[in-house]
Amino acid sequence: MRVLTAEQMREVDRLTIEDGVPSIALMENAAHRVVEELVREFDPIDRQSIVILCGKGNNGGDGLAIARLLHEYNVQRLRVVLAADPAEFTGDAAQNLKRIVELGIHPVFDVPAKLRERREVNVVIDALLGTGLNGPPAGRTAELIAATRGFPQARIVAVDLPSGLGGGGDCVRADITVTFTAPKVEHYLAAGAEEHIGRLVVTQIGSPPWLIPAGLEVSSPGDFRHLFRPRKRESNKGDFGHVLVVGGAPGKSGAAAMAGLAALRAGAGLVTVACSDSSRLAPELMSASLDDFSLERMTVLAAGPGLGDQRGIVPKLMEEATVPMVIDADGLNAIAGTDFRGRGVDTILTPHPGEMARLLGVERVSEGDRLKVARTFAQERNVCLVLKGYRTLIALPDGNVWINTSGSPAMATGGTGDILTGMISGMIAQFPSQIDTAVRAAVWLHGRAGQLGAEELTEQCLIATDLLHYLPKAIREIV
Fold first, then answer.
1. What confidence tens digit (pLDDT) does each residue in 418-459 have?
2. What are phi and psi of 73, to 5 degrees?
3. Are 280 and 247 in contact (CB under 8 A)?
4. Residue closest to 380 by CA, chosen among 419, 418, 347
5. How sure is the predictor about 131, in pLDDT bands with cuts at 50, 70 and 90?
6. Running DSSP on this structure, what letter comes out for residue 4?
7. DSSP assignment of 325-345, as one string?
């Protein structure tokens, strides 16, 4: 599913209007989609007590149109609260304000205290602010956002986006968010998005699908389901690639061992681990010495887990390797500060935020900059970048970025990154001609295994190797 920025959404609206759909019609369609959801969720709608909070922009115009439609549904207990003086409303919003006044709906400038005291309101519609917010809400709008918490028995429905989300300040905590045309970046990447959006409903209001630009999408299991079709009966281990994991310096052999086992569990036919201590390896894994290993017959190379001070190996491997290479952990630190360039999707980097900052030579990467940083870095360095964290981003050299939505706080424990490195390597070993899809599959399954493990083991008790125990269940969910 494609995801849009505020600027892209404005451009889609502009082109739709230019194509012959009036802006007032788009607003009317948006209101109809919200009311349809209200009717489904709060049947019978005419018995509900509803408060609509309206800003002075297009989002507020949607809210005013919703008020008119609810009036047509014979909703008697309906109040409209404005965040600005009626004289400040312009364009389509002003037109909709005039129409509801003509119907006898008289907006007020405050939430009557008696409504909160009597606890009679059971639905609050947030139509204060839309996308493209610059900074925290202020003034009357901020007061109304705070007021949404004064209705303890009410469910909150946000129009397009919970007001304030992505602005760095207070925001509405919605139970349902109804958005239009496509999801917005804030729905996935804004701080606190998951807690404030509730159930996301994506609806269509008349913009032609071909106007929706590509470039940013949500990674969905349907995109890589085909990778898990039954294997041919005559398959052999040589059909599914040979992964070489290079890591595991003295005292850190566990990291390489986990990466190797994860590559095998993800489906690689053969896995060799070059490390300092092979006694930590599972019996299914082959071993080699860090001082004496060969790239011959290897189809995927994973470098970095537990590599420690042996980092000089990595730049040399980057020069010599002709197969896909996954670089993580100490391997990333080995190339930080250099002017390296990758080989397109054949070079996969998997940094966490601290490692990403070191690659960039900065102190930190802010949450609000993650998307821009990931896309720019992948393009400039010609790599596939897996920027780990809440909502891991997979950025490709061509500028396309995928948002991964699986994962759990339980995965904030040592070794989960090594497991991901192995899983990515194992998936690429099987599907070397579909590297970007294989990477997205590994990232999603890694996160989903973490969710499944947390449900059973609790967020505190999950450890890295537990992910491999829940991986089969995650795979079964998508096949």
1. 999 999 999 999 999 999 999 999 999 999 999 999 999 999
2. -85, 5
3. no
4. 347
5. confident
6. B
7. EEE-THHHHHHTTS-----EE
Amino acid residing at 435: I
- Are domains 6-211 and 221-478 of this chain identical in fold? no
CATH of domain 6-211: 3.40.50.10260
- Tens-place pLDDT, residues 76-105: 999 999 999 999 999 999 999 999 999 999
What b/e readout covers 159-178, taking b as 16+ CB neighbours within 10 angstroms? bbbbbbbbbeebbbbbebbb
* 206 phi, psi to nearest 5 deg: 120, 0
Domain 221-478, second-level architecture = 3-Layer(aba) Sandwich (3.40)
Q: Indicate the DSSP class of residue 230.
A: P
- Domain boundaries, given as residue ranges, for the chain: 6-211, 221-478
Beta bridge partners of 201: 178
Query: Burial of 6 by CB count in 10 Å (0-12 exposed, 13-18 middle, 19+ buried)?
Result: middle
Rounded distance between C-alpha atoms, residue 63 and residue 81, angstroms: 10
What is the rounded (10 degree) CA torsion for 72, 78, 79, 80?
-30
Q: What is the pTM of this model?
A: 0.92
Separation between Cα atoms, residue 122 and residue 113, nearest integer Å: 15
